[in-house]
Amino acid sequence: MKIIDALDVPYRTLNKLIDTVLLNNNEENIILKNIFGQRYIGRGLSYKNSLIQIYGTPGNDMASYMNGTKIEVFGNGQDAIGNTMNEGTVIIHGDCGDTIGYAMRGGSIYIKGNVGYRVGIHMKEYKNMKPVIVIGGKAGEFLGEYMAGGIIIVLGIDISKSEKIVGKFCGTGMHGGVIYIYENLEDYNFGKEVKKSEFNEKDVELLSKHIKFYEKAFSRNLEYLRIEKFSKYVAIGKNPYSNMYCNY
Amino acid sequence: MSLNFNTPLFEIIRDKNKCIQCKVCVRQCANEVHWYSSYENIVNSDNNKCVNCHRCVILCPTKAITIRKHRLEFRNNSNWTSNAIKEIQKQADTGGVLLSSMGNPNKLPIYWDKILLNASQVTNPSIDPLREPMETKVMIGRKPDKLKFNKQGDLITDMPPQIELNVPIMFSAMSYGSISKNAHEALARAATKLGICYNTGEGGLNKDFYKYGKNTIVQVASGRFGVYKDYLNAGVGIEIKIGQGAKPGIGGHLPGKKVGADVSVTRMIPIGSDAISPAPHHDIYSIEDLRQLIFALKETTNYSKPIFVKIAAVHNAAAIASGIVRAGADVVVVDGFRGGTGAAPTRVRDNVGIPIEFALASIDQRLREEGIRNSASLVISGSIRNSSDIVKAIALGADAVYIGSAALIAMGCHMCRSCSTGKCNWGIATQQYDLVKRLNPDIMYKRLVNLISAWNHEIQEMLGGMGINAVDSLRGNKLMLRGIDLNETELRILGIKYVGE
Lengths: 248, 501
Description:
The complex is a heterodimer.
Chain A: E1 2-5, H1 11-24, E2 30-36, E3 51-57, E4 67-74, E5 87-92, E6 108-111, E7 132-135, E8 148-154, E9 176-181, E10 194-197, H2 201-217, E11 231-235, E12 245-247
Parallel strand pairs in A: 1-2, 2-3, 3-4, 4-5, 5-6, 6-7, 7-8, 8-9
Antiparallel strand pairs in A: 9-11, 10-11
Chain B: E1 10-14, H1 24-28, E2 34-37, E3 42-45, H2 55-59, E4 65-69, H3 82-94, E5 97-100, E6 115-117, E7 138-140, E8 163-165, E9 169-171, H4 181-194, E10 198-199, E11 216-220, H5 229-232, E12 237-241, E13 252-254, H6 261-267, E14 275-277, H7 287-300, E15 307-312, H8 317-326, E16 331-335, E17 344-345, H9 346-351, H10 356-369, E18 377-381, H11 387-395, E19 400-403, H12 405-410, H13 433-436, H14 441-465, H15 471-474, E20 481-483, H16 488-494, E21 497-498
Parallel strand pairs in B: 9-19, 10-11, 11-12, 12-15, 15-16, 16-18, 18-19, 20-21
Antiparallel strand pairs in B: 1-4, 2-3, 5-17, 6-20, 7-8, 13-14
């Protein structure tokens, strides 16, 4: 376990330092202390057995293009975590900003609290890669916009009755993937490309698996959550705009 | 069946004396224009389906086929032209958004043709490039403000990454999906042979083409298709696509039917799924956000590659370009309103954006005024048709140009403008296996090499005529240009004098 004090270390130096540590020892775990907004931590990292623990608030684009490493943040995250991520795990013990998991293709992101706008935008899936975003609290508008694959789960833990579990325009432009929300919402909350879908055994299995992971990661007992209270939303079709054009 | 008002655009004329009923035309036409009637032993054709791609004309062994503009005309009307009428009929028929392919075909001024070049007479000797050295090599990338040397005279300034081009020409972004694998292979091999670069477009990169990495620019657009670490590191540069001249302000959409097994692999999406590129990058709403993406890419590739940012030429292009340079881009790419496309909404293609000549001149001027012209290279595109367009572009301030349509024409494109149907008879804009294999990369890459080599000679001739022996000495040298048939505003923006001045 290598400890790096990141106080006053600019992101370029810090990321280079992380590269060097991981390069010298494939299995190394790293603890980053005093992180104050340094960007791009974990960008493109492919060390599948390494864990980076972050204390503080990492900056935007954390885990962008990440290819396998595990990152755990003891604090809040900022915007665009897991941007175009391929593989790996991100665990955030706090809230996050906008566009989490933009164009994410694989791996998983667990967020203890709430997230901002356009989370899971243009998430994809490909062959065995199926990205997952689990949001403990609530999500802002345009959750899962243009979603083309993968899984988004919103648990709605600890939100007050006056707060909405997801914002407006959820799943606008969705043409793949699935969104589970711990509330049965009216259609008007969703984009016109989205429909409510029936639950089956596999959904129960999947939700239980991710809820268990959440419970363990954030030391939280969620036995009171009832799987049947979740509702499931999917894309109406994978070619939403195929009849829109005429060739001239 | 409801009434269909469509009338043919073209007329197929078959010389019955020459036709030997060999059925080559029947087999060659993916639009199923021709058919053989065994009862009559003649080949017939349906004018309505013809797109005028010349495939049958060229492959007919007896040259029995001619295609003409159809003689059927509407009553003469300068306002309600036949195009205007037909577009309405099409939309009334389908309820669809009009979709067109290739660049804006409308009669709008082409400013390259209103600019004339200079040559030396008496006062400055012209140079004969066949017998004297002539440099057409250019370096693309950010240039430092100052160079520092140590006492031994060695350069000690940390040079930002550069891309060396033997000719100031690159093949512009055309995705695998919009064009075929064989077309990509021809472009990649030609770029390698010529010592220039081709651009993957937003369609990922086929595993077979990683070996051409030294001559590859990879593109990152809003859909992030096929973008992952290995892809980012595969080429010598990365281009962030913000916009495209043919469709400024809107995204892209590869219909699911074109996402077959191979395209699915390079784009890293399931077979048959629509590939939708959103209009904006949703992580870029400002210059500061653009900086974030530029540096995310630099971080991921260890600052080893120049980052290009491509925009469409729009009204405020100069101010936007300044922002792009300040955001840390190494190359600014500007695509003019005549730029080509596999498919764009017709109204957008024909009415949005500005001519590249003006965008180029104003961007170059703005970056010079702000003292940051050296901070980025300037690459332009949007209908470069020949080598003199390139010479004029460089004199207006460009470092290099991208060509798309011209490269496709070299590979057999006949500008029938039907790319979006996916039935390209020349094997270029199609994913249909039987059509793709018609394009032989072994032959087509040589045609591309021929074209660029010929243009390179022509560029050298024109440079030599001006008494200049390096492309670098022509860049932004507006004294070599004069305008004709231009008004004062046009001359002012272009920064050139009128002929005779």
